[in-house]
Amino acid sequence: MPHLLRFPDARAAADAATFASRAARLGDGALRLQAASGTLLMSCAPLSPRGLLDATPTVLGIRASAVDAELVTDVVVDAAAVAPSDDPAALTLPDVAVSAPWAGIAPPREGWSPAADLDAATVAARAQWGIAAVAETVPRDAGEDVVRTVRAAVWGAPDDALAGLPLGAAFAAFGLGFIGGAEPVAVRVAAPWTRLTFRRGHVLVRGPVKTGLTAVRTTGAG
Questions:
Q1: In whole angstroms, what is the distance from residue 59 CA to residue 66 CA?
Q2: Which region among 161-170, 172-181, 213-222 has the lowest average model confidence (pLDDT)?
Q3: Which among 16, 46, 123, 212 is placed 20 to 30 Å from 177, CA to CA?
Q4: What number of other Cβ atoms are within 10 A of residue 114's Cβ?
Q5: Cβ(34)–Cβ(76) below 8 Å
Q6: Is the Cβ–Cβ distance between 89 and 10 less than 8 Å?
Q7: Nearest to 118 by CA among 170, 66, 177
Q8: Which residues of 123-155 are buried (b: 16+ CB within 10 A; e: fewer)?
Q9: Sorting pLDDT into bands at 50, 70 and 90, what band is 47?
């Protein structure tokens, strides 16, 4: 694993550092780095189940960036350990990789079919509603198991304003900074995955969603 992740310029490096810092605060804090042919895919799991009885949906966030054309790697690291280097166009990587179960269930690169059209403002509004719902529902001084149960119930619920997708898809987009203003959000399906595409990145949900998603066409729903 290389110790330095080199980008074409300082702006690209800063953008990757921002994504890593956001990934560090969400989910398990792991960050997958896949590089080939000058393109780096950075992915994380703001939501993922821990154990067979955990109802939390698997929701990934992915952002692409240009990177050193000679770099070929596929590694999972602690996002919090990705740091600036003396070179403003590079980031330092930790010496040790980490394990993340979600990294072994990568979505397909091809075969996506149109399913729905959403509006970024709607996605943002539903994320903020969910954050408030979790905060209001979690009891004071609740243990980790109670917190995870509440989060799974809120973020795993299908939401009509999101064409039946789990509310957690909105949480991931909001938490990773993918919502930067008014824009259409295309929803694509390649079973068992569903993908929301923003200008700043992609959110992917694994698993069954509300029946009829592939026939839904909405704009500014909710």
A1: 24
A2: 213-222
A3: 212
A4: 11
A5: no
A6: yes
A7: 170
A8: bbbbbebbbebbeeeeeeeeeeeeebbbbbebb
A9: very high
Helices (H), 40-163: 120-137, 144-155
Give every CB contact of residue 71 below 8 A, 6+ residues apart in sequence: 2, 5, 6, 35, 36, 40
Q: Which of 90-104, 111-125, 135-149 has the lowest mean pLDDT?
A: 135-149
Q: Two tokens at 38? A: 């000058």
Joined tokens for residue 33:
């780095």
List for the chain the helix, strand, coil content (%; round to 5).
Answer: 30, 30, 40
Instruction: Give the pLDDT confidence score for residue 216 in this predicted structure.
Output: 41
3 state DSSP class of 66: strand
Q: What's the CA gap between 65 and 196, in Å, rounded?
A: 18
Q: Which residues contact 102 (CB under 8 A, 6 or more apart)?
A: 30, 45, 48, 58, 60
